[in-house]
Amino acid sequence: MKFSYYLLACLCPIILFSSCKKSNDEISPDTKSSFTIEFENQVSGSPLVLNTATYKNANGDDFKINVFKYYVSNIKLSKADGSSYAIPESYFLIDASKSESTHITLNDVPAGDYTKIEYTIGVDYARNFAGAQTGALDPINGMFWTWNSGYIFVKLEGTSPQSKAANNLLTFHIGGVVDPNNTIRTFATDINAANPLRVRADGKPNMHFIVNAGALFTGKTNINFGTLNFTMGGANSVLVADNYANGMFRLDHIHN
Amino acid sequence: MLKKTYIIAVLCLCIAMMYACSKNQDNEVPADVNIAFRVPANFPAPAYHFEDNKLTNAGFALGKKLFYDARLSADKSVSCGSCHQQFAAFANLDHKVSHGVENCQGKRNAPPLFNLAWQKAFFWDGGVKNLETSPLNAFTDTCEMRTDIATVIAFLKQTAPYPELFQKAFGTTDINSQLILKSLAQFTGVLVSGNSKYDQVVRKENSAAFTSTELAGYNLFKDKCASCHTEPFFTDFSYRSNGLDVQSADEGRSHITGVATDFGKFRVPTLRNIEYTSPYMHDGRFYSLDEVLEHYNSGVKPASNLDPLLKNGIPLNTLEKEQIKAFLKTLTDHEFIKNTLYSES
């Protein structure tokens, strides 16, 4: 008898909890909540350490990175039923030198189970030509070309002994939205349906992306720093954008 | 005795300060004036939308003060107004190419600033796409004001009366690049020049009429020049080569498009107020309209991307040149050039 009392005492909270959990799963479409994304910058599997660490590109050239900044914008979430939600005004600048910028928060997202995320690597066409902007798009961030309107979508600066530029510099400023040198690329990834992004009133899930800076230099076209060490828009920027379009971001895991 | 001198000195200082203060106030728009963006009857609808940048007297006054403030540049010697002078219709008189901080010589001639609200692209090569973002290059270019926006913002935040002026214009003292650029656009966007003799003739105002020489010039102009210098802006805003050099030293339009056939092409410039915007062409190579007309008459070079319309140049005899010149001078808008609302006070 005593045993069953104990059992009851143990079971109660479990029942309570699971019933709680159950009510959580009934998602009202009007409920809005938030989730966060962490971008963990790496270079081909090693942590990105600015200024000091030496990396190797696919061509075998050594290089160091001093600056690594990129835009993630127009984030869109989709559910298994095919419906989707585009997060308005979602413009983020991730700067490897500012750790707070690598964690972003998306607010006012309708609760639901999302099984796909997509976003622009860079900034959409219209905002490149719009009037003065603030926030992530403020030209003060050093990601706006003043002589040829438009944003630098991905900026990587560093050095390589193989670079023939002055001081062995590497200057990769990728941007431009006009054909044939349009560098707007969209990244999309499915989320494992068994562990979707669960946005709930009381749950703030976190998505963890690995970002590979080395992806700029490998893929469709392996970059040789002896021949390509400087680009600011144009055909060579397209080569780099085509490289990173698929290789730069990888969804590692989600904490629900 | 010493005390007396002291009192007098303080009094003088006070008067001087009062004077300085009242001078400062001149920057503001007179109370009875309402700054407005006016579209002349012979102009089409503008490309810039003031709906997204609500025009106010305070916003305009702030933009104007920023425009004339040389303290914004690296060595505090150069303001927007140094290169864009009102008496030259906001072009740069006598400067072939722009002249920035520490006497740095740029590579291009400063264009005049008016009717910018109708432009969809800016600079000689059309690289800049929005009126609001067009001052950015001047701020940061090492050969213009050589500063950066963070420095400009820091300066404005700690320099009276700027915080107060931002408060009046935008309801905040939290100065950022957007507000700086929006106020500058309120000033530059309002610069409309559409009241020349030509405009009055076209609009049949004040019984304005061309002289017979001007009229002959107008007819020649429509025949020989207007396919590129199209009314009412006297530009069709296209990019072309008018054969200045066989091989252009400046890439021009191809720098922006990356297209080889755009090499050495520049925006067809407006000819409004042309009497006052010398020197001429993207590099300011011609000092007089006579030189320009002689170029079209005998100097057009077989550049690889030469505009087909200019294949044989534009033969002009002495009389025709005088007539065209007389017509071009009817494009001067004296009211605009002398309007004290736009002047540094």
From TrEMBL, chain A:
Pfam families: MbnP. Residues 33-225 form the Copper-binding protein MbnP-like domain. InterPro entries: MbnP-like_dom. This is Copper-binding protein MbnP-like domain-containing protein. It comes from Pedobacter rhizosphaerae.
Automatic annotation (TrEMBL), chain B:
Its cofactor is heme. Pfam families: CCP_MauG (PF03150). Heme c 2 binds at residues 225, 228-229. It comes from the Bacteria. Binds 2 heme groups per subunit. The keyword Metal-binding applies. It is found in: Periplasm. InterPro entries: Cyt_c-like_dom, Cyt_c-like_dom_sf, Cytochrome_c_Peroxidase/MauG, Di-haem_cyt_c_peroxidsae, MauG/Cytc_peroxidase. GO terms for molecular function: cytochrome-c peroxidase activity; electron transfer activity; heme binding; metal ion binding. Residues 58-160, 212-345 form the Cytochrome c domain. GO terms for cellular component: periplasmic space. Residues 1-22 form the signal peptide. Heme c 1 binds at residues 80, 83-84. Keywords: Heme, Iron, Metal-binding, Oxidoreductase, Periplasm, Peroxidase, Signal. Binds 2 heme groups. This is Cytochrome c peroxidase. It comes from Pedobacter rhizosphaerae. The lineage of its organism: Bacteria, Pseudomonadati, Bacteroidota, Sphingobacteriia, Sphingobacteriales.
